[in-house]
Every structure is written in structure tokens, then in C-alpha cells.
Amino acid sequence: MISGPVSTHNSSTTSPTNRTDAELIPVRMLNEFTYCPRLGYLEWVQGEWAENIETMEGTFGHRNVDKADRKSILAADKKTDAGSEDDQSEKTIHARSMTLASEQDGILAKLDLLELSGSIATPVDYKRGQVPDLPEGAWEPERVQLCAQGLILQANGYTCTEGVIYYIASKRRVVISFTPELIARTRQLIADFRQTASEGMCPPPLEDSPKCPRCSLVGICLPDETNLLLHQLEIINDTPPTPQLPRKLLPARHNALPLYVQQQGAFVGKSGERLTVKLKGEELASIRLLDVSQVCVYGNVMFSAHAIKELTLRNIPIVHLTYGGWFHSLTTGLSHKNVELRIQQYRTAENAAASLAIARQFIAGKIKNCRTLLRRHLGDREAPVLRHLSEYYKRVHRAESAETLLGLEGMAAKEYFGGFFSLLAGQSEFDVSSRNRRPPRDPVNAVLSFVYSLLTKELTVTLNSVGFDPMLGFFHRPRYGRPSLALDLAEEFRPIIADSVTLTVFNNGEVNGDSFIERAGAVAMTDAGRRSVISAFERRLQTEITHPIFGYKVSYRRILEVQARLLARHLLGELPEYPSFVTR
Ligand code: SF4
Known about the structure:
Layout: E1 25-26, H1 27-35, H2 37-44, H3 53-61, H4 70-82, H5 85-90, E2 93-102, E3 107-117, E4 120-127, H6 140-155, E5 162-167, E6 172-177, H7 180-199, H8 218-221, H9 223-232, E7 257-261, E8 267-271, E9 274-279, E10 282-288, E11 292-298, E12 302-303, H10 305-313, E13 318-321, E14 327-331, H11 339-350, H12 352-378, H13 384-398, H14 402-422, H15 443-466, H16 484-490, H17 494-507, E15 516-519, E16 522-525, H18 527-542, E17 544-546, E18 553-555, H19 556-571
Parallel strand pairs: 1-3, 4-5, 7-11, 8-12, 11-13
Antiparallel strand pairs: 2-3, 3-4, 5-6, 8-9, 9-10, 13-14, 15-16, 17-18
Helix pairs in contact: 1-2, 1-6, 6-7, 12-13, 12-14, 12-17, 13-14, 15-16, 15-17, 15-18, 15-19, 17-18
């Protein structure tokens, strides 16, 4: 059993985002809360939303119902106003997509269909799927949602003692009586939901529930992952000795991928359901919008208004980088609705101790992953650099100030890069001994800077989609135009993604002397060189590995998202600490 959510932040339980008593609860949200209290909270209070096959089928099934039949509504009004009681009892009038509320119960509903016969009203709710084989005729969330609609109709002066659920796949109507027990249960759930929402603390995830695989928010909620981490941190009562590994509820990788455009003067447009890239009228590429996760453009690339509108409406970000690869801005739709998370992020950033605790995790994870990369490639398990990095790792956990942590990070990085550059020592053409940047003065440092920029843009997009403000970090202090939180989270991934890609492109010969140009002591990559590195970077992000804690196969790109969500779970008080990602 879970002992209850653990608050690690210093906020009181009231937050500006808490729902107030005055707000009407949509009955659709009441359905979600009845299914799982956490689902109701995530959707109503935190504004989270995600499609899965079931929600898409539901929307598709409702397509006719959602077209408000204004004729029917007007006809219903006329009959109600003008007709006698007897006249009305003979005819049933249908009104669709009506929105009604009950101030008394504090709820609001958009009725799929209302059948009126005189003063007798019957709500009809459309559900995808088959009629369930249950004595009650329908699942509890569906019955509660329908009963809440009945309460609204009663509050509006209608006689309403039963409702109908129409199952689209079975094409069958199931009549649900509004018994005193169902009414009492519905009112209790309304009260529980209101209290949960006003307390501002997300209910804990269900444990090993068969509901989770069918839940559209499973990738946001991370129920099994959160429960496992809570077990490991021993804050759950009755902890079983070996908590089971999470079920694999997430797809291992994303289906949609970034589109990179680096041809100067290219034009990105929209044609039907596809994005097109043209140069001087010639089509260079045509990609289904469904297959695009982000559009990354280097230098001067133009967009049609149609393309921008479609991309922002679909939450597909446009990432702008300079021709040289410096990530400088992002075009997105309206920002994420999860205001609660951003408020906690700002509060935590103002709290030096809380920020330091998170920053320690970022840097400890980075040093551990640096050590792992060197251990795998050096072949000498006794190498002094490995021992030194282990010592820095321990000292990071004891760092008592941000300045001390910064110093330890710098010393560990210097030690690490000494070992890292030795891995390329056999290639005299690319022989370097130290990290340099702004501008990079050799090919290896040019690739490192470019890949770090790619990683930063990837994390900026990820953090933005989760609901963070990517500009405010806990280790990197705010600086104008700097995505500090993305740089923070990048720390633990630099060795295992960016540095690993750098080693790959040099060791595999994916770049050579022709991939670089030198001007006034600065080294930059050619278009072809950049294409090779971008390709290696994307391959790395698509690589699936076995997650060291959760035990299932997952791509690095998915891991970036999971880490961002775990950081959110920590800031919102569910996890007592942020668990950095470390490979074995
Ligand atoms: S994934 Fe499970 S615990 Fe999380 S909101 Fe959905 S049903 Fe609830």
C-alpha cells in the first residue's frame, strides 16, 4: 500500500492552480476520476492530455454527435415553450450537444443527446466499444457520468430518473436507472474529486492495475516506474522485499522523427497531409506530417504560413539553429497547460538547498556516465582516471554549495577529457589534447560542440513538451537566451550520447578531413560533415537499450522524455529525489 504522496517542496498545499470550490467539474472529468483519481487530477488540475487508440476511436465515434444539431435544439425549445403537456408526451424531441450545468452539484456537462418527452428528459451518452457483460449494464465511470447528467437535468427542472448509454460498436442502448445508491455514489465522487483538486496534491499511481495499459496518460503518469522508485526509496508502507519490475507500458521508441533542413534558401510548405521542402521550385523532400516530430532548420530556411499554422496546431516544434549549428530559438503553439509544474519549477529554483540537491544528481550522473564510457573503451580497469572519477563522484554527493559543485564538475571534466581524447590518439589527423570552444579550433572539438548543441535542442524540445520552462535551471544559472534547464539535464547524457556519437563518427570514418573547413583559426563543419554527424546523432537517439532500473527496452530519445517526467514528479512532490540516469 502506498502511504500517500510525499511532499519534498516547501509549498503549502494551496497553489494558484488548485481548483476552487466555485469551479464546475465537467462530468467527463468525473468519469476519469472514477476510473482513477490520479487520471482525473492529471487531466483537470494539471491539464495533461494524450491521445491513444481508445481516445481516437471515441472521438471518431462521436463525430456525428458532436456536430451540434441546431435545428433539433431550436425545435426542442419551441415545443417546450409552445406545446401543451399532452402534445409533448406524444412526441419525443431530440437535442444534440447541449451544454447544461448544475450550480447545486457544481457540475457541467455537454450532453451527447437529450431525448425530451414533455417534461421527462433522458440523457443519452455515446460510448465506443461493445456493451460490457456486467449485471449493472455498464462500467461504474460510465454510470456515474450518466447519473451526473441526470442530476444536471433535474436541477434544470426536468424529470429525469434514468439515462441511456449507446454502445457504438454493439449499436445497442443500455438503460441505467438513477437509483438512490447510484445518486449517492455520484455525489460522493463529486465531493471527493473537488477535495482532491483543491488540496493540490496528485493522488498516487495505481499499483499493478489492469487499468493502466488502457490509460491514455500512461506515458505521462509512469505508474509502475514511479511505484518502483518509491519502493526503492523505501517510502511505501508494507514494502515487499523485491518489488516487481515495471510492465512495459510505453512504446520503446517514438514513431515520428525530426526533419532537418539545412539547404540555404529552402522553402517548407504544406500540401495536404504532407510537408514539402523545395529549393528554387524543385521538390527536395515530401514527408507525412504524421511522421514528423520536430522541424530543425539551419540558417535561412523559409516557411509558408500554412505550414507554420499546421505545425503549431499539431504541437510539432520548429527548432531554429544558426547555419553553424548554434541553437537559438523555438517556434511552438501555445505553451503547455501544466502551470502547476512551472510554478514548482520557479519555487524550487529560488530555493538554494533544493536546487543544489537536484544539481548534485545531474553532476553525479554525468561523472558516473563519463567513467562508464572510459571504462568501456580504455580496456584498463585500473586506469588512474577511473579511480579519480570515482572519487569526484563521491565528493559531489557531499558538496555543500553550488560553488563547490561547480568546482568539482570542472575538475572531473578536465580529468575525463584527458582520457577521452586519448581514445582518438591513434588518429594523428585528429589528435587533440584538450577541450576548446567558441570557436572550436580542431575537428574533434568542432564535432563535440555541434553534438552538444543538438543534445541541448533535443532536451529543450522535450522539457517544453513536458511543461517545463527550459530557460530556468538548477545548476546552470539563468542567462539571457540560455536554455539552462536543458543544459542541466544534458549533463548526465553528454558522455553516453554526445561524446559517444563523437567517438563513433571519427572511429568509423563517417567524417574525414574533407568534413571540415578552417577559417582564421576556427574549425567548422561542411554541409556533408554536418549531415554525417546528424545522422549518427539520430541513430544514437533511436538506439534501444535495456533501462538500468526499469528493465525494459527503450530508446535513448524515450529515456530523455522519461527523465524529464521523473524530474517533474520530483518537483511536484511525488518522488523524494530526482534519480539521474546512469548506465552500467
Ligand atoms: S496510468 Fe494508471 S495510475 Fe496512471 S493515471 Fe492512468 S490509470 Fe491512473
